[in-house]
Design brief:
With about 300 residues, this protein is of the alpha+beta class. The chain has four helices and 14 strands.
């Protein structure tokens, strides 16, 4: 009888532990280059999802985009370039974002050549097609000039606190990304997501290391951004054709499964899927299971 009780207890503990592992968010993410690593996808719902983390940019970095970024996508797998992958936006923490693949149907967009040689269209937060394609960005705390941007990048090299909040609002995803006092709020249309897919965000970066990555409370009731408040300051924050990490004519942006944005298929995406803030529930279930086992064992001891 004792062996049977132990076996039941062990099975319950393993089941709950497995559930917790499946929903564990990576604590650290080393991003030596653009699109080199991503967290597993976090499902975006009306309740919202929020992630906090620390970021340290490489001392050798020279560009504002050598900092964290967020990918918004749909798929049947919670993974960048995974099954059913359909990318909707890449949002950088230096107040810039783009929507690949012609914003899924917008007209009059710029054609680019992807890294794999295929052709594609894109919109970005600095061109005239951004709003007509259904995107919007509002920002606050934007550095006023090149000197201020240099200070912002220096702070990133020393280490900064960052936060991402994403909420599904109707047919849009609202992403609020904060890095060292600079906060952008981006509206991303996801109305063209295929049936049977879910909307996810994954966190990544370029020439930076992310640590202490943790889920926080659900997102607030966020409303879509109403305009484009970007104020790019100087050359150090201005995307240019063919520039590093910038989708432009002849640049490296790409879309679709196995391509991503400047991403070859099959590169390392860190493991550990998570969908929403379910870890606390798993802990609660484990506690209840453990308590039940203790009660059973105590009862068995009394009756013996």
């Amino acid at each position: 009888m004792k062996k049977k009780i132990f076996a039941v207890a062990l099975a319950a503990a393993m089941t709950v532990t497995s559930a917790m592992s499946a929903f564990a968010l990576e604590k650290e993410l080393d991003c030596p280059s653009f699109w080199s690593k991503h967290t597993e996808g976090l499902e975006v719902t009306a309740e919202g999802v929020e992630v906090t983390f620390k970021s340290v940019t490489s001392a050798d970095a020279t560009f504002n985009w050598d900092t964290p970024n967020v990918v918004v996508y749909a798929g049947t797998e919670a993974k960048v370039n995974g099954a059913g992958y359909d990318e909707y936006a890449v949002i950088r923490s230096d107040n810039y974002a783009w929507g690949p693949d012609g914003a899924h149907g917008a007209e009059g967009l710029t054609e680019i050549t992807n890294a794999d040689g295929t052709k594609g269209l894109f919109v970005n937060s600095l061109n005239e097609n951004w709003a007509p394609a259904g995107y919007a960005m509002e920002s606050e705390g934007v550095p006023a000039d090149d000197a201020a941007w240099a200070e912002w990048l220096t702070a990133n090299k020393a280490g900064v606190d960052c936060k991402v909040k994403a909420t599904l609002s109707g047919k849009n995803v609202i992403v609020e990304l904060t890095n060292n006092g600079l906060t952008s709020k981006t509206t991303v249309p996801v109305d063209k997501a295929a049936e049977g897919t879910k909307i996810y965000i994954s966190i990544s970066g370029e020439l930076c290391t992310l640590s202490d990555i943790a889920l926080a409370a659900g997102g607030d009731d966020q409303k879509p951004a109403t305009g484009d408040d970007q104020k790019p300051a100087g050359d150090n924050n201005t995307p240019a054709a063919g520039g590093n990490n910038t989708p432009a004519a002849g640049g490296n942006a790409g879309t679709g499964a196995g391509a991503g944005t400047n991403a070859p298929a099959g590169n390392g995406n860190a493991g550990g899927a998570t969908t929403g803030d379910v870890a606390p529930y798993a802990v609660a279930v484990l506690a209840v299971a453990a308590a039940a086992v203790v009660v059973v064992l105590q009862k068995k001891k009394v009756t013996e």
